[in-house]
Amino acid sequence: MSSNKKGGDERFLRVQKDPRFWEMPERERKIDKRFQSMFHDKRFTEKYTVNKRGRPINQTSTEDLKHFYNVSSSEDEDDDEEGVKSKKKKEVKEELVKVEIEVKVEKEVKVEIEVKVEKEVKVEKEVKVEIEVKEELVKVEIEVKVEKEVKVKVEKEVKESKDVKAEGPPSERGVRVIEEDELVRYTAAEKTFAVRKGLPVYLLAASICQGVEEQIPHLTAAYVHPDTFLARSLEQHAWKFDRVTGEALVVVHIGTDDVASGLSPAAIVGQMEALIDRIQHGHAEPLYVAVCSILPRLVDNQRTMGTVRDTNRRFHELCRRKKDTIHLPTGKLFLHHRQIIQNYFTGDGVHLNVEGKKVLFNYLKTFLWHFCKHS
Predict the structure, then answer these.
(1) Which of 96, 102, 303, 330 is 20 to 30 Å from the Cα of 319, by its Cα?
(2) Cβ-contact 327, 289 below 8 angstroms
(3) What is the Cα–Cα distance from 210 to 227, expressed in whole angstroms?
(4) 322 CB burial (10 A radius; 0-12, 13-18, 19+)
(5) Which residues pair with 288 in a beta bridge?
(6) How far is CA 334 from CA 54, 170, 273, in A?
(7) Which pLDDT score, from 0 to 100, does residue 86 have?
(8) Inter-helix orientation angle 302-321/265-280, to 10°
(9) pLDDT in tens, 211-263
(10) Domains in the chain, start-ordered, CATH in brackets?
């Protein structure tokens, strides 16, 4: 009976005012958010296996709560959305922490690798330096040993050949010549050459040696090329010695025009070494090369004079270390107290006159006589 209903039998008026007989109001009972977790929290869940009559069932207390409480779907969705959001936030946070850890580990590994590589490079450099020092020491020991052996051998040969009389013009200072039956032992600049007597002699020179055939008539061949350079001779003339067979000597007198062109001493010596290597390439028997000094000229200035001196010094060092190669200091013939002898040059100050060529060719004849008994 509704409490708002009025009228009727007076005997039942008391019932209308008694709340025990009122109907339950038809309104929703909202669940506080603090207690909404009881619908999905496992701590509020209890599983039933039998009902009140003893029949087996499969039911939980959550279903009873849903029976007695009306929960709107919007609240469930809100709860689900909040759960999803919190779960995503948690996952993102965990992912960020994981990425930070990975970056940190990667940095540590990178630093460790860099330190390791730096240590390896340092150790490698130290080992390399140690190996180079050892190789240099071994090289020096070998050179000292070879020098001693050559010295002992030369002294022995000198002692054994005391009765041998040298023929021809006197040898220059610092040169030792020992003549045997078929060989000539020529020693200069701490190098000894065992040369067959009368071996073929070739000349490769610039215009400064024009007319050499008249002064040294028994040359096998004289290749005189005016205004030539070392690079041009390497490209155009060195192949001619490929036809040489057996033991022979090649005298090279080139380089004056290279100095005049402005090349540095290092560049000139490098081209000379390349020319020597090309001449000697592919020969089974020794092909000796005699490198003449670059002659000073009256037209040289202070710069070119310095280039000539430095180049000739480097020629000497080059011939000392290369096999079957000897340096001929022809430049000294044209200096007196470090001054150029003007009487040996023509009026242009570049070319040798008759007297100058005579001095140069007589020196070459003397060298050829002592080196291989070439007359």
Answers:
(1) 303
(2) no
(3) 12
(4) middle
(5) 249
(6) 138, 20, 25
(7) 80
(8) 40
(9) 888 888 889 999 999 888 999 999 999 999 999 988 999 999 999 999 999 99
(10) 22-69 (no CATH), 197-370 (3.40.50.1110)
